[in-house]
Amino acid sequence: MDTPSSRTLLLTGPAHEEACGLAVVEVLERDIAGPIENAVWEADEDYNCNAYICRGYQFEDNNDNVQVVKAGDVLYFHVNLVAGHHPGYANVSVVDTATNAVIGSPLRSWDNWPNHLSGPPRDDIDYNITIPASLPSTCSEAGNCVIQFYWYASGNEQTYESCHDFYVEA
Ligand SMILES: *[C@@H]1O[C@H](CO)[C@@H](O)[C@H](O)[C@H]1NC(C)=O
Ligand SMILES: *[C@@H]1O[C@H](CO)[C@@H](O)[C@H](O)[C@H]1NC(C)=O
Which of 27, 80, 123, 162 fits as disulfide partner to 39, beta carbons 3.0 to 4.6 Å? Predict the structure, then answer.
């Protein structure tokens, strides 16, 4: 996700390295569009994160980049599709970063992603989401909730993720 800014765009930072270990971080950074699985295979004894939450990228490394939102706000997203030859499905959800649980229903979901037939303009890589009214109060504190783009390439069993930090204005 390159619009709005996402954790993964900023590349790694000390909190990510501390949580996931250098072996995993090195693989993630070598290919910013690479699947999470490639990194997790390299996990060593310093791996203490869940790379399936925001690719292991930590809020502490991205806390200058938090968007303040309110219910009903429409946010535009652009996904930089680097490797489009991995068919699968995708969704965009608010995720609780403490539990990796999806909050509510997905904001967007695609049974077939990527879908080059969806445009122009391409609905799969250029889309809007609306901030739901029903988010829990935990999302009023930065770092607790993210808008996560999740793509699972079913054929080659690869997971791609990107996370946008936000909090809901009280
Ligand atoms: C994405 O969709 C799949 C299939 O419907 C579902 O299993 C998964 O929980 C969803 N993930 C997110 C993060 O919304
Ligand atoms: C997103 O919403 C804005 C404002 O409503 C609109 O101008 C724009 O065309 C929408 N973009 C997409 C890709 O739906």
Answer: 27
12 close to 4: Cβ distance less than 8 angstroms: no
CATH number of residue 163's parent domain: 2.70.50
Q: Determine, yes or no, domain membership for 1.
A: no
From the CA of 128, how far away is ligand 2's center (Å)?
6
How many domains does the chain contain in total?
A: 1
Q: Answer yes or no: pTM beyond 0.85.
A: yes
Whether the CB of 48 sits within 6 Å of ligand 2: no
What is the C-alpha to C-alpha distance for residues 127 and 46, in angstroms, rounded to an integer? 37
Residue that has been written with the tokens 């999740």 in this structure: 150
Instruction: Give residue 152's pLDDT.
Output: 97
